[in-house]
Design brief:
Nuclear Transport Factor 2, Chain: A; six-stranded mixed sheet; 3 helices; SnoaL-like
Length: about 130
């Protein structure tokens, strides 16, 4: 129970770092597997921390500047060697909803090793037009 409390607190801080585009402060494993699913221009599958950071900086936040994330619900299971986190979130710009999504992550010893993001493709595509 205490471990889940700690993970939730840390994960919320990481969502804030992402919103602030402090991408280098997010602990990502060198061999991370990142998938951003959907039928929209941002859909991708990447391997490696450098590739993920580059995509976030040069693609995601360039196409969606000023985006901030609001965590609506988070489920956590596992231990520090393999922690699984499911997060339901809203992405907003200037306080207005841009899209909602679900993110499934796995961390090991505090570093992101796997992430799958399922955004609302219709709302996201509309925001990109």
């Amino acid at each position: 129970m205490l471990y889940r409390w700690f993970v939730r607190k840390r994960a919320l801080a990481l969502w804030d770092r992402l919103s602030d585009q402090r991408i280098d402060e997010i602990p990502i494993a060198n061999d991370v597997h990142f998938v951003y699913l959907g039928d929209h221009p941002l859909a991708t599958e990447l391997h490696g921390a450098d590739e993920m950071r580059r995509w976030l900086r040069n693609v995601f936040f360039r196409r969606l500047p000023g985006l901030r994330f609001e965590v609506e619900e988070m489920l956590i299971e596992g231990g520090p060697w393999s922690t699984r986190i499911a997060t339901r979130y809203a992405a907003r710009r200037d306080g207005k909803l841009v899209y909602r999504g679900v993110q499934f992550t796995r961390t090991a010893w505090g570093k992101l090793v796997e992430e799958r993001v399922l955004p609302d493709a219709k709302a996201l595509s509309a925001a990109l037009d």
